[in-house]
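dude i think i finally got it to work??
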Amino acid sequence: ASVWGVSSVLGPLLGGLIVANVHWAWVFWFNVPFGVVALLGLGRFLREKVRTTGAKVDVVGAGLLLLGVSGLMVLLNLGGRLEAGQRWALAAVVLAALVALGRHLWVRQGGILPVDLWRDGLILLANLSAFVAGVVMIGLISYAPPYVQGVMGYAPLVAGFALSTMSLGWPVASSIAGRLLIPLGPANTARIGGAAGAVGGLMYLLLRPELGPGWVAAASFFVGVAMGFINTSSIVTIQATVTWERRASATAANLLMRLVGNSVGA
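look at this
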């Protein structure tokens, strides 16, 4: 969770530098060596005793999920550039795909998304909190640097620093949360993150240009602390609640909710 937190904040900053100083295409080529190293590392060091069960990949569910979520991403990102008829047509396709996906998952329990697990109140709250965390995170990434640069009048480097404090609070909080999960329990650990998020949100609510980038940096730090506590608690709770063979799909569902929250928040 710490690595993900740092990457998710530093990635957009590096992307901005690459686009501004090199070429936009290198945003994509930049990822290739990291992917190769990751594949080699997983092949070399990941060792698990996997029990074969004969389960098949849910191809239909995966296809419907791809169609529904991809269409939703296009609608959210490019909807303003489309004509009204195109927007309605795309929205209809997205709705039909998601409805068909829901029906498919209801009939086939344990498909690409374990919807039956959402009946568990703890998993439901963990997934909803991941969605809200995704909205908040991308909101700050999209909003804070332009505000510091465009409204406060500071250099792009200062604007990036004001946001990067989120990546400082996130890994620290993730490490602390991992140690508190057992003695405090997942709910109380997540509540600490909620309190930190409320502080950061209140600071952003009171933001004025004359307060300067230091105020933005402090608010971003508190939000990063909130993300570290909430996301770590959510993922560990989900993985501890489900059986081993459903751990991957349950974790993926939580991450999907965070990504959907990113798009909705943007």
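Residues 121-151 form the longest helix (31 residues).
im so relieved honestly
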